[in-house]
Amino acid sequence: MFGNSFRIFAIRLFSTLASLVVMVFFSHQLSQEDNGQYLGFIVNLTITSTLAGLGIGLLLFTYTGDELRYLVRSIRPRYYYAYLALLLLIAGVFAGLTCGSPAALARSGYIPFLFFIAYTAGVLLESVLMVAKQFKLLLLSGFLYALLYVGVSLMAYDKGFSMDRLLLWLLPVVYGKLLLLLWAAFSFLRRPPVGDPASFKSKKTFSLWLHLGFYDLSNMLIQWLDKFIVSLLLTAGTAAVYINGTVNIPFVPLALSAVSNATLMQLSYTTGRREKAALMRQAGRLLSCIAYPVFFFLLFFRAEFITVAFSDKYAGAIPIFLCSVLILPVRAYSNTTILQNYHRGRLINIGVVLDYIVAIAIMYPLYRWLGLAGIALSFVLSTYVQVIFYLYFSARLLGQPMTQLVPLKNWIGKLLGFGLLGFGLYHFLHGLLTPFYLLVAGCSVMGLVSVVLLRYEMKRE
């Protein structure tokens, strides 16, 4: 489980790092209006690609490689054609959002349209190849894609920034990666599956897929809906301030996704309830080594992080950022892993609805109290309620107390340790170093301690 977690994390790390590097560079070099346009593109791409994904990528990790081959063979051709039609439709919507006007859509709409198709198909194929454990190929393709993405973005800025130029120059990059992944995926799927096809329940798969598709889309919307609305209703400059203030710290969701997917892969071979609970505790110990140091680092160094990463132009995002990072401690629990393993999609989606209800109920009072930061805080608090809901029903499925699914003592020790370390570092170094070197020093110490703890957790197992 640890090995697969790190492999999946590393595969997704390259593209995330590339996006982060470009985001930071553009925040410093572009005007707020141009940067807001680029950030709006990222928001629109995230939402529409998740919609086009239909929860398929999440579903795939529920099965072994042979079960995946049965699944692909059991789907009738008309459903593949229907999905292709849906993909083309959503690509058209994305092109319209990116272009912003009918005239621009008619002139250059084909560029974001083609980009979206290759990007979304590549994301789905990566999930297939992770189940196939083609990790070396995925690491290579991810590394090359990240280098080319950063290089092309810098060239597009040097020639005079425009979204059309950036996406046009990225087309060969995304289609080159897509062809490589297609070749590998077809090679994997062509091999005949081993095992009893009668044990594969297609109706059960369809039911789980419907629930996971709804969950994947809803979970994404709860994280990105506020950014999408702000980017549509407010000026691009104001949207840039809000989006930077609510920036997702990429490594934690990346780690959560990697550990969750690796745990699901391991759970598919595990039958005992106590063993499954033990796997969840292992995942919690691993995730807390990442989520807790990142949380306390950003909590104490928040002002320096915003001004150094995005420049002084975005100092107004600091209160928003403070509220948004409060979500990080709860990321140490892999929310829906047990429910997905037991195919309890209905419970997963009840949790999604609960998340929305709580967020909507407290959003306006918190907005009146804290302004835009209150909107960010409402989504954080609703997530805490959702996680408790998932933990309660996961424990019931396993017939275990909730405390058996989480390493509570381990978490408390890390919270106290990292909290004191972050507090001490900031107050000792503040005033001695410039903001940039203050960030470097704090990040280095917290990161080193995090790595040491990760190695300890791996040896412990």
Question: What is the topological layout?
Answer:
Layout: H1 2-29, H2 32-53, H3 56-60, H4 65-74, H5 77-99, H6 102-108, H7 110-131, H8 135-158, H9 163-190, H10 202-233, H11 236-245, H12 251-267, H13 273-300, H14 302-310, H15 318-324, H16 337-341, H17 345-370, H18 372-398, H19 408-429, H20 435-460
Helix pairs in contact: 1-8, 1-12, 2-5, 2-7, 2-10, 2-11, 5-6, 5-7, 7-9, 8-9, 10-11, 10-17, 12-13, 13-19, 13-20, 14-20, 15-18, 17-18, 19-20
Protein name: O-antigen/teichoic acid export membrane protein
Organism: Taibaiella chishuiensis
Subcellular location: Cell membrane
Indicate the low-confidence ranges by residue numbers.
none
**What fraction of residues sit in β-strands?**
under 5%
Report the order of strands and helices. Answer: HHHHHHHHHHHHHHHHHHHH
Global shape = globular
Structural class: mainly alpha
State the end-to-end distance: 11 Å
- The number of E-state strands comes to 0
Contiguous helical run count? 20
Mean pLDDT: 83
Count of separate structural domains: 2
How would you describe this protein?
It is a multi-pass membrane protein. The chain crosses the membrane at residues 6-26, 38-60, 80-98, 110-131, 137-157, 166-186, 206-222, 251-271, 283-302, 314-334, 346-367, 373-399, 411-429, 435-456. With 461 residues, the chain is mainly alpha-helical. Helices cover 82% and strands 0% of the residues. Helix 1 packs parallel to helix 8, helix 1 (2-29) runs antiparallel to helix 12 and helix 2 (32-53) crosses helix 7 (110-131). The protein is globular, with a radius of gyration of 22 Å. It folds into two domains: 1-228, no CATH class; 247-460, no CATH class. The chain is built from 20 helices and no strands. The model has no long low-confidence stretch (mean pLDDT 83).
